[in-house]
Amino acid sequence: MKNIAIGDKVRVLSSTEEGLVVSVKKDIVEVEIEDGFTIPVLDKDLVVVSSSEREYFGGDHEPEQELAQESVVTRATGEVYVCLIKHQNTSGYQLSVINHTTDAIFYHAYRKKENRWLKLDAGQLQNLNFHSLSKSVSDGETISISCTILADDTDSVPRSIEIVFKVKAQWFLKDLSTVPLIRSEGHYFPVGKAMNPINTDELKNAMYSQGENDSKSAYSPIGNLLDLHIEELTDTSEDLSKSDILPFQLEAFESHLDKAISAGNDDLTVVHGVGNGTLKHHIQKRLSGHPHIAYFKDAQKEKFGYGAIYIKFK
């Protein structure tokens, strides 16, 4: 697999099309071209548009000159990523935070040792940059990372996102992707969605209330079954208008999916019901080309009928 990462500007060798990489899955790269369409391309048919290529087309280099391997990131994905890269000669991992947004962030990271949280690192990171938090993270360690998006102009308080996860060796038994900006093979996942961050206080309150009074919640932190029937998501579904139900279900799905990936789950079954197929369509659209999903299919009909999707994570 070529050294191609999300956010790279690439050119299709067999045509004149250029675009930005929005997804990398094994040897298939999804490229958003100029007219806004996304096309799948084999990685062997792509070349990263680099500074040396622009110099070449300016006429200062010979045609045979090999293009530089480093890419020029032309657009942020709007995500803050956590990245783990396995050491060559040891069992440990290097842990990094990647700011792939257009704003600076403030981050702080902790590791859990014998029921105590110990500080790893804290600081400020500029846009389209990365920083190594630790060079000695081990299998089974629990890590907590929180970030605040430091936008220059905002009408509200700075957005905050966070994640708590346990490092799993099985992540590195599967196909790895080229990590954005770092450009090494590793396992990475988003801390949160910068444009629609998870409200961690609401999630915690939902989990606590579920344990205390058995109220219904879609936000189990590591559950491998999610029922999106609206009456299973909230006890006050009668207060929602018909136009509000689908966005509510999709928000619950997005939140649970991100938490399941972050927790290192192996799979997830999502019950969407039969209905008119709109919810299923939106779920499949979100799953298609997702960098952390190996495959998805209809779940066991004997157990769920025709209204559920089984998702297998990488």
Short description:
It is built from 6 helices and 18 strands. By secondary structure, it is of the alpha+beta class.
- The low-confidence parts are 51-72, 193-204, 206-221
Classify the beta-strand content into a percent band: 35-45%
Largest sheet: 5 strands, antiparallel
Mean pLDDT: 76
Termini Cα gap: 17 Å
Shape call: globular
Biggest sheet: strand arrangement: 4-3-2-1-5
Q: Give me the count of strands.
A: 18
Order of helices and strands: EEEEEHEEEEEEEEEHEHHEHEHE
The portion of residues assigned to helices is 10-25%
- Helical stretch count? 6
What is the SS-derived class? alpha+beta
Rg, rounded, reads 21 Å
What does this structure look like?
The protein has 314 residues and is of the alpha+beta class. The protein is built from six helices and 18 strands. It has a five-stranded antiparallel sheet with strand order 4-3-2-1-5, with no helix packed on it. Strands 10-7-6-14-13 form a five-stranded antiparallel sheet, covered by helices on one side.
Descriptors:
314 residues; alpha+beta; five-stranded antiparallel sheet; 6 helices; 18 strands; 19% helix; 38% strand; globular
